[in-house]
Specification:
Layout: E1 4-11, H1 19-36, H2 39-44, E2 45-52, E3 56-64, H3 81-95, E4 110-115, H4 124-133, E5 139-145, H5 151-155, E6 161-164, H6 171-191, E7 207-209, E8 222-228, E9 235-248, E10 253-266, E11 283-285, E12 289-290, E13 302-306, E14 312-315, E15 320-322, E16 329-331, E17 344-346
Parallel strand pairs: 1-2, 1-4, 4-5, 5-6, 8-14, 10-12
Antiparallel strand pairs: 2-3, 6-7, 8-9, 9-10, 11-17, 13-14, 15-16
Helix pairs in contact: 1-6, 3-4
This protein binds zinc ion (2 copies).
One zinc ion binds near residues 230, 297 and 298.
């Protein structure tokens, strides 16, 4: 039996925290449900999942649809697209059966790559290797989630670059249905002896083929900060998203970006294992950030207290605290509002 290998390569970087990651996890349930209901797909399709943030790893090795169990997705700092492609190529080498004079190998693999950001490593060498040795042997569909994706880097990988943008409730599940349909269509065309790759029609309301990549935006789409709970020592992630604010004077009008709080999410300790450990010095001034969350672990009033070591912790108002990062005693005193012109904190790589 010739298999149709399908690889999902998923961006699990900080900017995906919250809705996007949960929607991806739910999306797998829906894809698997559809594939199990289709006789061609059930027979031929095998699925594999590779996740990437600061590092990339296979989290589900190639397995038949029948035995596939949707994984819990990790979260980490960084968007190492080069590492993701290296992991994909290694997985293809390891698990896809090649055609030889003695045996019919697997069908041409399908790859769905999802990302919402800009690479934080140098993907150049991996892209070159993909194009010279793998591009003809696999069909790659690259999906950018939202306009802040670096589409020009995706265009260097494949002609099939799709922008997905959620404009209404339910668009993500409609999009997941499209993914399932494209896998089913592929397995059907194999059943009919066609080895060609055709994409089902796109629903233009929330997805379109990217022909000319739009210029990348100068400022970052979101700012993320990592802290630790003083009481439980568990990590959390604070996320701010860019909003453009109109500033008008008598003479002219322009837009300035501000970053508004979208949420504070509890993290697992494995966040650090999925993060890029290279030291970077990305700073953000707190006066650009609107809103301060409470601690998602212990309910302390603010998750936005900064220790002398530069790390964030939660406190419940002016008090003595032990920093869960450096173990020093810190005293937080109230500050008069007049002195409050912001200070710099280290931010994540996105
Ligand atoms: Zn706490
Ligand atoms: Zn500290």
């Amino acid at each position: 039996m010739r298999r149709l290998p399908v690889f999902f390569v998923l961006d699990c970087s900080e900017s995906m925290v919250g809705d996007h990651l949960r929607q991806m996890e739910d999306g797998f349930q829906a894809v698997v449900r559809t594939l199990r209901g289709d006789p061609h797909a059930l027979e031929t399709v095998h699925l594999s999942v590779i996740a990437f943030a600061g590092v990339a790893n296979t989290i589900v090795p190639l397995i038949e649809v029948f035995s596939f169990y949707p994984p819990k997705l990790p979260l980490g700092g960084g968007t190492s697209l080069g590492a993701a492609l290296d992991a994909l190529m290694a997985e293809i080498d390891r698990s896809v059966v090649k055609t030889t004079p003695d045996q019919k190998g697997d069908w041409k693999p399908l790859v769905y790559l999802f990302t919402d950001g800009h690479p934080t490593d140098d993907p150049g060498p991996a892209i070159a290797r993909w194009n010279s040795r793998y591009a003809r042997r696999a069909s790659l569909i690259a999906v950018g989630i939202g306009k802040d994706t670096d589409f020009s880097v995706l265009k260097r990988l494949t002609e099939n670059v799709i922008l997905f943008e959620e404009t209404r409730e339910g668009d993500f599940s409609r999009f997941v249905n499209w993914i399932s349909a494209s896998v089913v269509a592929q397995s059907k065309s194999l059943g009919e002896g066609l080895d060609s790759q055709t994409l089902p029609d796109l629903d233009e309301r929330f997805m379109k083929i990217v022909k000319d990549p739009p210029p990348a935006l100068a400022d970052v789409a979101c700012v993320t900060l990592v802290g630790r709970c003083q009481k439980t020592r568990k990590p959390y992630l604070i996320k701010y998203e860019r909003e453009l604010q109109d500033v008008a004077t008598l003479d002219f009008k322009f837009e300035v970006p501000i970053y508004r709080l979208t949420g504070c999410y509890p993290l697992d300790e494995d966040y650090f294992a999925w993060s890029d450990t290279r030291v970077v010095d990305l700073k953000v001034n707190t006066s650009d950030l609107i809103g301060a969350p409470g601690c998602p672990h212990c309910g302390n009033a603010t998750a936005f207290a900064v220790c002398g070591c530069g790390k964030l912790l939660c406190i419940n108002g002016p008090e003595e605290a032990t920093c869960p990062w450096c173990e020093k005693q810190v005293t937080f005193t109230p500050r008069p509002a007049s002195e409050d012109d912001g200070f710099d904190v280290g931010r994540g790589r996105g």
